[in-house]
Amino acid sequence: MFYWLIDLSSSVPVFNVFRYITFRTGGAMVTAALFVFLFGPWIIDNLRLRQGKGQPIRTDGPQSHLVSKKGTPTMGGLMILSGLVVSTVLWANPRNPYVWVVLAVTLGFGFVGFYDDYLKVTKQTHAGFSGRTRLLIEFLIAGAACFAFVWLGREPFATSLVIPFFKDVALNFGWFFVIFGAFIVVGAGNAVNLTDGLDGLAIVPVMIASLSFGMISYLVGNAVFSDYLQINYVAGTGELAVLCGAVLGAGLGFLWFNAPPASIFMGDTGSLALGGMLGSIAVAVKHEIVLAVIGGLFVLEAVSVIVQVASFKLTGKRVFKMAPIHHHFEQLGWTEPQIVIRFWIISVMLALAGLSTLKLR
Asked: Is the dihedral of CA 260, 264, 265, 270 positive or negative?
C-alpha cells in the first residue's frame, strides 16, 4: 500500500524512499514486530479462553512435558501470520506476482495447519486429520505455486535446478520441475513442523533462514548484484525480501511470548505456514539446494524421524532414544534451554555456510 506513495514522489520528494526494497524491508520488519507485540496478549487471552485445556501433549513424548507444558494454548501461528500479512500488504509492491504466490502458499499451508490444530484441541488428541489428506492438500497448493513460478520465469532456466558452487551448471527437469518444486515446498513445511517441539526451538531458526533468504532474494532480484556474484538473475524476486523482513519482525514479536516457559505454542498453524513459505521462496529464487544447507537443522529433524520409523519397521530397533532428534537429546539429559540455544547456534553456522555459496562460484 505504501508503495503507491511513489506516484507522489514528483511533488513530495521524500516519498522516493519507498522505491527502495531495503527501506520497505526494514519498515515491514518493524511493522510486523509492533503488530505482534501490541495484539499478541489479546490473541493469547482469546486462544486460552477458547481452547480451555490448551494443546494436548503427546503421551509418547518426554514425560516432563506432560507437566511443564500442560494447558498452554496453541495456534500461535495466527499471531505470526497476522503480523506477516498486514506488514506485507502495507510495504510490498502490490504489482509483484511473486509476493502474492508466496503469500498464498504461506496462508494455504497455514490453513491446513490451523485445521489440524483445531481438531487436536477440540478432540484433545495429539493426532490431527488424515496424514494422506493433509499431504495431498499441501501438494496441490505447492504444485500450483511451482507452476506459477515456472510460468513467471524464463525457459529453460525456470524449469532447471541450479547447482551451487558452479557458475553455469543446471539440470533441466522440464515440466517435471513442478513436481520437484512441490516436493521441496511440502518437505520444508513438514520439516519445520517437526522441529517445533520445544519453546523457541523452531521460530529462531525460521527467522535466521528468513534473514538469509531475504538477502538471497534481494541479490537474485538485482541485475547488477547477481551479475557481480555470478548468480542467476530472476527478475521480480527481490521484492520477496520485504516478505522475509515481515517474517523476521513477526518472529521477534512471537519469540517474546514463546520464550521459555512459553505462553503460547506456534502449532501447526505457524510451523507449516513458515516452512512452506521458506520452501516456496527457495524455489522462486532457484536456490533449492541452498535451502537444504541453510535449513539444515530442519532437514536433520526430518531425517531423524524418517530413520527412526524405517529402522523400527525393518529391524524392530530404534536408532534414537526418541524422535525428532531434539527429544533424543532430552532423553540424554540435556536441559531444554541447552538444546534450544545449541540448535540456534547450529542454525547460524548453517546459514553462514549457505550464504557463502553466493560467492564460491
From this structure: negative
pTM above 0.85, yes or no: yes
- Whether 126 is in a domain gets the answer yes
**In degrees rounded to 5, what are phi and psi of residue 171?**
-105, 115
Count the Cβ atoms, other than its own, within 10 Å of residue 50.
11
Decide if 9 is inside a domain.
Answer: no
What residue numbers bound the domain in which 215 lies? 21-356
Residue 222 to residue 193: CA distance in whole angstroms: 32
Are 55 and 121 spatial neighbours (Cβ–Cβ below 8 Å)? yes
Closest CA to 54 of 245, 265, 200: 265
Bridge partners of 171? 161
What pLDDT digit, counting tens, does each position of 287-343 carry?
Answer: 999 999 999 999 999 999 999 999 988 888 899 888 899 989 988 989 989 999 999
- 306 lies in some domain: yes
Conformation bin of residue 316: beta by default, left when phi > 0, alpha when psi is -120 to 50: left
Residue tagged 496478549 (cell numbers): 41
CB-CB contact of 36 with 79 (8 Å): yes
Cα first-last separation, the chain: 38
Quote the CA–CA distance of 43 and 264 in Å, as a whole number.
10
Amino acid at 341: I
